[in-house]
Amino acid sequence: MEEKKKIATREAYGKTLAELAATDKNLVVLDADLSKSTKTADFAAVAPERFFNVGIAEQNMIGVAAGLAACGKTPFVSSFAIFAVGRAFEQIRNSVAHPQLNVKIAATHAGITVGEDGGTHQSIEDISLMRTLPNMTVVVPADAIETEQAVKALAAYQGPAYLRLGRLATPQINDENYQFKLGETVLLRPGRDIAIFACGMMVAVALEAAELLAQESISATVINVHTIKPLDIDAVVESAGLCGAAISVEEHSIYGGLGSAIAEALAENCSVPFARVGIDDKFGQSGSPDALLRAYGLTPTVIATRAKAVIARKNAK
Amino acid sequence: MSLDVVAENAKEMRRKIISMVTQAGSGHPGGSLSAADILAELYFDAMRIDPSNPKWEDRDRLILSKGHAAPALYAALALKGFFPVEELDNLRKLGSRLQGHPDMKKLPGVDMSSGSLGQGLSAANGMALAGRLDNKDYYVYVIMGDGENQEGQVWEAAMFAAHYRLDHVIAFVDHNRLQIDGLITDVMSPEPLEEKWQSFGWHVQKIDGHNLEQIAAAIAAAKQVKERPSVIIADTIKGKGVSFMENQASWHGSAPKQQQAEQALSELA
């Protein structure tokens, strides 16, 4: 495969905000003392009058954003996922989601690939928390190109949204012709034997797993589920039904995230053998991102092994 | 508007509070009655609002951060003409626009949904920032409870308003000295409130929260303050105007029975 430059989704986020600053005068950006890490500093550099650092005070940040949105602004608020979503969950619920205010929570440093900072800083439950909220849209882009388009789509969309971004530079799976459509899955690789549903940086890993499976003459469909909510249920059910087996892959707890969303859709519409690859009810820990991905089983090899076990269940029927 | 008219509306608001909470069979009369004069002065005198255009961009905003005092807000909005007074009877009923706590998506005149304590001042900060960005001169009023000042987010928001010099934020603390479990100073003292707000960089006034002249004068003085947000700590009486409710924490969140309501209404005649 052609070697492409790895880029972190947070990098694309900052660049896109800065680009939008010129055209979208309603755009305002808030950060809680992490603007250099979340890359909102890129926006602050070009539109300082519309950038507000709130200090280390995430609960107030969400409320300020709610007030700005109530007066017609489009606030993007950023921090690490653990703080933006975890610390300020009830503010997001009652000041943003319940009144349906147009606030975009764009959280970076989600998942274990935060790395050396360790378990306290590695959010593995944010998709779950945001997915439970009525009115909330949840998007997990797979690469920089998708992030850029997702940011633009969410800026144009009216309503609360959560955008999950990563710290780690990751491979690009889309090219310049890619067109992001909020709420629609993307078929990246067609196959017959199993449908692999992935989101975020795990989409690239899932594509590698499909390559491994192909070497064993197993044909895997790979689908990028960038919008976890509202879930593209029809597409999920159709792909799983065609393959007769399915697996989900995410850098998140297997409770409440993509895997749960897929399991719910399949259980109600199309019961096929299914497994969830993700973080199995454990906290993260310190380590390099690569070492952590191996330690927590988020590798092409593990996905391929789990996929084969699901296919065996299908064939045993 | 003359303060006599404001006083008339404040009394009518108190009557509505009693009747709607009684009708609903639940609700928060104590803190609604303590905030009634402040809300009356705002809605019937100080605020720049137009009931026929509740989303008017240049309007002054009000956030009832102590959202459980919704009956007082609803009474003010109905009497001001934002919606029919008869609708007050629907308080807390299924499908009603008059939710247990204010819902901006449902009821005209509600500028911000509220009810979970500690969140209103942050939203006011955002509204004031938006006004500054848009070169508008509207004010954003916030009504907090004194017990609410126990919430950490209030002080995050207090820091923010002072840091960003939000002189169009005017906050009230409804200082009725009681919360659900008793005296605020017994449960978890937020005192001394004046010194705390001063040390956070705010312009602070202390007034009698049932004296309309003092409320009006404090608002006027707050508007003269530049580069700093203002807080008006209003000494009030929980249950004000109904003898058996006054200064009783037990009337924080319970509705009067019919006979009690009749007595209350006769006292408020």
Description:
The complex is a heterodimer of chains A (317) and B (269). Chain A is 42% helix and 17% strand. Chain A is α/β, with parallel strands linked by helices and 317 residues long. Chain A has a 7-stranded mixed sheet with strand order 2-1-3-4-6-5-10, with helices on both faces. Chain A has a 5-stranded mixed sheet with strand order 7-9-8-11-12, with helices on both faces. In chain A, helix 4 runs parallel beside helix 6 (89-97). Chain A is globular and about 60 Å long. Chain B is of the alpha/beta class. Chain B has a single domain, classed as Rossmann fold (3-Layer(aba) Sandwich). In chain B, 41% of the residues lie in helices and 12% in strands. In chain B, helix 1 (3-24) packs across helix 3 and helix 2 packs parallel to helix 3 (70-80). The radius of gyration of chain B is 17 Å and the shape is globular.
SSE blueprint:
The complex is a heterodimer of chains A (about 325) and B (about 270).
Chain A: H1 9-23, E1 27-31, H2 35-38, H3 41-46, E2 51-53, H4 58-70, E3 74-78, H5 81-87, H6 89-97, E4 104-107, H7 126-131, E5 137-139, H8 144-156, E6 161-164, E7 186-189, E8 194-198, H9 202-215, E9 220-224, E10 227-229, H10 233-243, E11 246-253, H11 258-269, E12 274-279, H12 289-295, H13 300-316
Parallel strand pairs in A: 1-2, 1-3, 3-4, 4-6, 5-6, 8-9, 8-11, 11-12
Antiparallel strand pairs in A: 5-10, 7-9
Helix pairs in contact in A: 1-8, 4-6, 9-13, 10-11
Chain B: H1 3-24, H2 29-46, E1 61-64, H3 70-80, H4 120-133, E2 140-145, H5 152-163, E3 169-175, E4 178-179, E5 182-183, H6 184-187, H7 193-199, E6 203-208, H8 212-224, E7 230-235, H9 258-267
Parallel strand pairs in B: 1-2, 2-3, 3-7, 6-7
Antiparallel strand pairs in B: 4-5
Helix pairs in contact in B: 1-2, 1-3, 1-9, 2-3, 2-8, 4-5
